Amino acid sequence: MTPKPLSPLLCSMDKHDPEPGSEYKENLQRRAQCRHCDSPIHLDHQGHWIADKPKTGRTSGWHRLFCILNRHTPANHAAKWNGKTYVSRCAFCEAPIIRKRHKVWRLLRDRDR
């Protein structure tokens, strides 16, 4: 198993590891969830697990780096008020995020719920 500190770096390089028991087939393609970044992944024709393209069509090496550094961008018009603050999904890594202050979004932790 890969050490935990390297996991975000490997996921940013599109080297994912499926969560045990999360594999399923859809349209003749093997799919799963990544055990480290929780992204939807699929098995390509060379036998490598790669992340699905974001639904927003937005990908960039810089944004992957920002996501690793916990600097996220909310998906357009997807932020919802939960009674305390705004929550959304990152437009690039699709992780659940929370708004800390104006234009500052971070990963949603258990203590923030």
What does this structure look like?
This protein is an alpha+beta fold and 113 residues long. The chain has 2 domains: 4-51, no CATH class; 61-112, no CATH class. It is built from 2 helices and 8 strands, in the order αββββαββββ. The chain has helices at residues 7-12, 61-68; strands at residues 24-26, 29-33, 40-43, 49-51, 80-81, 86-89, 96-101, 104-107. The strands form 2 sheets. Strands 1-2-3-4 form a 4-stranded antiparallel β-sheet, with no helix packed on it. Strand 3 and strand 4 (49-51) form a beta hairpin. The termini are far apart. The relative contact order is 0.13. The mean pLDDT is 81.
Shape verdict = elongated
Helix content: 10-25%
Number of domains: 2
Q: How confident overall, as mean pLDDT?
A: 81
**Main sheet overview:** 4 strands, antiparallel
Class computed from helices, strands and strand pairing: alpha+beta
Stretches where pLDDT falls below 50 for ≥5 residues? none
Beta-strand residue percentage: 25-35%
Give the SSE string. HEEEEHEEEE
Gap between N and C termini? 30 Å
Indicate the radius of gyration in whole angstroms: 15 Å
Treating each run of at least 4 consecutive H or I residues as one helix, how many helices? 2
Number of strands: 8
Q: Widest sheet: strand order? A: 1-2-3-4
